[in-house]
Amino acid sequence: MANYRHGVYIKEQATSIATPVQANSALPVFVGVAPVHNLADTSTAPVNEPKLIYSFSEFVTTFGAPADGENKEDFPLYQAAEIYLGRYGVAPAVFINVFDPAKHKGEDGKADVSKVNDTDIIGGVDSTGARTGLSLVDEVYPRFRLEPGLILAPGRNTPSVDIAVASAAANVSGFFKAMGIFGVPSTVESHDKVAAWLNDNNLTLDNCCCFFGDCTYDGATEPGTIHLAAAMASRDAANGDVPFWSPSNYQMLCEGLVHNGKALHLTPLEAADMNGNGIVTGLNIIGGLRVWGDQTTVYPGNTDIKDASIPVRRMFNWIGNTLILTCWQYVSTPLRRRLIETVQDTFNCWLNGLAGKEYILGGRVTFEADENPTTDLLSGKVTWHIYVTPPQAAKELVFTLEYDPSYLSTLFNE
Questions:
Q1: Please, which residues bridge with residue 369 across strands?
Q2: Which of 290, 283, 281 is nearest to 225 (CA)?
């Protein structure tokens, strides 16, 4: 009588509401050159191998440091670690070094960082399936279980690299979206020519920010793009890792701004003109030098708020990435009412929580018949509709001043 039971028994049912797997909002992936030739054993130097780094000292141990007499401006990844991990104190970050001391050599046979070119940064996939350069962004999540939020190749400001950055950010690992960040080359003479450069080189790209100006600190020139990435990450860290707050008006931890070797002292009108053309820059007017600009590079050609506003675009990326991470567990489960309701209830609760903290103004999830035709359901495709309203950046504050003569009555003692 093995099946005979006598007593009180318990069984468990799976929770009808899942806990959302919150995406990383600002994990940066820096692609470029590190001083790996200065490591004690260059045979183990990480070349075209993503590394997840949590501190500046860990970066130096892994990638090396410039030797005496070397200019750290030649090693943008070293600067990125020094600024992002050290000065701003945000972590972690992923670094991909493309400088290979065994390959990039000068005529004297010594390692030469100047031999690294745009093709090395852009990378690709060879006949063996090995990835290099920006193509390695797709391996970040499979390696570290962290999805990138920002993609940049600091110091490499050429249209071909910028387009590759945008491409890498648009479709990370085939599912996720990130924000690409690129700068303006010294060949662009002045701030009023940046908009034309963007248009002429087809750089009004989705999911991208363009930063004008390099930063100065302790006698060195630093890519301004690194400071923009650090400002974004710092804002997010102060707000529960939710990217609803624009990086604009965040204080930059540097001494000044330069372009093509000349100091930049932009007026508010000049900075606003750049902002109106989808360009972020730095403005030193009240409270020190600050990031200035709320628009992505698609603006003003595309004025759809989800594409043109930096905080709204980043929120759409973050919410979309969170949906993917959370719902992956439901792929290939039976398509039945329980699945539909679980997804709806899970994300309606989550969106209500975001609204309660004012990270969004409101949001809801629906399952609509006209978006789920029989043919789709027969093929196993099910569609939910997410309505969500992240707050727009308050970029223009207006006060109306009016002289009110009625207060002249206060002159009389009545």
A1: none
A2: 281
Average pLDDT over residues 29-48: 93
What SS3 class is residue 120?
Answer: helix
Token pair in block for residue 83: 């600024």
Q: What letter does residue 84 receive in the DSSP assignment?
A: I
Strands of the 289-292 sheet, one edge to the other? 51-53, 93-97, 28-32, 150-152, 179-183, 208-211, 279-284, 289-292
Please state, in angstroms and rounded to a whole number, the distance separating the CA atoms of residues 309 and 193: 22
Q: 31 near 98, Cβ under 8 Å? A: yes
Other beta carbons within 10 angstroms of residue 82's beta carbon come to 20
Q: Is pLDDT at 112 greater than 70 in this prediction?
A: yes
pLDDT in tens, 118-142: 999 999 999 899 999 999 999 999 9
pLDDT of residue 17: 63
Element (H, E) at 209: strand 208-211
Q: Print burial letters for 185-218: b (CB count within 10 Å at least 16), e (below 16).
A: eeebeebeebbebbeeeebbbbbbbbbbbbbbbe
**What tokens appear for 225 in the block?**
């793009």
DSSP string, 313-341: HHHHHHHHHHHHHHHGGGTTS--SHHHHH
Mean pLDDT across the stretch 25-54?
Answer: 93
Instruction: Find tokens 């799976």 and name the residue.
Output: 14
Per the CB < 8 A criterion, the answer to whether 96 and 48 are in contact is yes
Which helix (DSSP H) or strand (DSSP E) does residue 124 occupy?
Answer: strand 124-125
CB atoms within 10 A of CB 153: 32
Higher pLDDT, 158 or 413: 158
Instruction: Show the DSSP H helices in 32-125 as ranges.
Output: 56-63, 76-80, 118-122
Residue 185 pLDDT class (50, 70, 90 cuts): very high
- List the single range of 62-66, 212-216, 251-255, 410-414 with lowest mean pLDDT: 410-414
Give 9 or 292, the one with higher predicted confidence: 292
CA distance 344 to 324: 14
